[in-house]
Amino acid sequence: MHLSVRSLRPWDVLLPAGLATIGVAELVALRPSGWAAAAALEVVAALILVWRRAAGLLTATLAALVLLQMPWIGPQLDEAAAPILFCAVCGYTLGRWVRSYRGLWGVAVIAAAFAVDYLLVDERVHGVGDVIFLGTLILPPYVFGRVTRRLADQAEELRDAQEAVRRAAVHAERQRVARELHDVVAHSISAMVVQTDAARELLASDPLRARSVLAGVSDTGRRALSDTGRLLHLLRDPDDELGLGPVPGLAQVPALVEAFRAEGLDVDLNLPTELPALPAGTDVSAYRVVQEGLTNALRYAADHRASVSVTTLRDRLDIRTSNAAGTTDPESVGAGLGLLGLAERVHLLGGTLEHGTRGGRFELDVRLPVGP
């Protein structure tokens, strides 16, 4: 139970206020015996119901008991209709805001209080009809509240499950990026060792060539340092083993496109004739962008056609994939985990990713920086 003004929502106050307004207006219009005291009871019951979300069992039961004091001080059960609305809200509260079936205890207490009023205060002749009326007054709102609570619990469980799946997808993508960058950094360090040994051998015989080789060592070291900085931002399983397969890059995109063509996807590829020297992390990520775009096109393209455009600028690399959206596109089918992981990869490299359906075509636009 958590009772505080900060925890209140607008509807928590507006509904009881509306009930109190209706009840008081009805009593003022009818002016039965003891109507002023009865109006005060309705206001008190409304104030209690303000906290129905925080303490459903207590507030719903107490509010109903307060209202059922009305026949003892003035208006009888058949003289005012507003208390019926109060009882409906109390029944719904016992089903919606009380865990398990403990709300039935509140239903039983309210029913008992009604029975006492019928037997000791109400002078009318009672029969089976009064029992049915009492049941329809409390039980349907209670059942509706239980159904609403169950649906809300299921929706919350579904959101938690989706968030867990998304977190797992991000973690898996980080693991894969870590493996690939690890391979790249290992290759760069190995190259630096070989180049340094070669430069040492050339120092005596060919100093100019040795200087050129050392310049290459410096460039390789700077690239490795940049990739290592990205690697340090990732969480890596310490038991993961080094992959021995080559790390793909833009140079392997034509072979990737041919593989998709063999699977029935007609691909229009626009790739620069001369590929620039890219940082290793950017190179492999560019390949993954094209791979993800073509994978989505193979699954969802209505006409089994796709286009890939790679543009190299001075300080960035632009990649765009496009395909006909059809009736099922990546935004409306599936969990979108591939795009989620891709966005994580691009963000890690300091780039931007946008995707969406425009003019009947699903487009994936990625910009990757190529500077330090």
Poorly predicted residue ranges: 234-245, 329-335
Task: Describe the global form.
Answer: elongated
Percentage of β-strand residues: 5-15%
- Spatially, the strands of the biggest sheet line up as 1-2-3-5-4
InterPro entries: HATPase_C_sf, Sensor_HK_TwoCompSys, Sig_transdc_His_kin_sub3_dim/P
Pfam families: HisKA_3
Protein name: histidine kinase
GO molecular function, one term: protein dimerization activity
Short description:
The protein is of the alpha+beta class and 372 residues long. The protein has helices spanning 10-30, 35-49, 56-67, 70-73, 82-96, 103-120, 128-205, 207-231, 253-262, 280-300, 337-348; strands at residues 266-270, 305-312, 316-324, 352-358, 361-369.
What are the main properties of this structure?
372 residues, alpha+beta, Heat Shock Protein 90, 3 domains, five-stranded mixed sheet
SSE order and pairing:
Layout: H1 10-30, H2 35-49, H3 56-67, H4 70-73, H5 82-96, H6 103-120, H7 128-205, H8 207-231, H9 253-262, E1 266-270, H10 280-300, E2 305-312, E3 316-324, H11 337-348, E4 352-358, E5 361-369
Parallel strand pairs: 1-2
Antiparallel strand pairs: 2-3, 3-5, 4-5
Overview of the structural elements:
The chain is an alpha+beta fold and 372 residues long. It has three domains: 122 residues, no CATH class; 65 residues, Single alpha-helices involved in coiled-coils or other helix-helix interfaces, CATH 1.20.5; 120 residues, 2-Layer Sandwich (Heat Shock Protein 90), CATH 3.30.565.10. Helix content is 62%, strand content 10%. Strands 1-2-3-5-4 form a five-stranded mixed β-sheet. Strand 1, helix 10 and strand 2 form a beta-alpha-beta unit. It is elongated, with a radius of gyration of 36 Å.
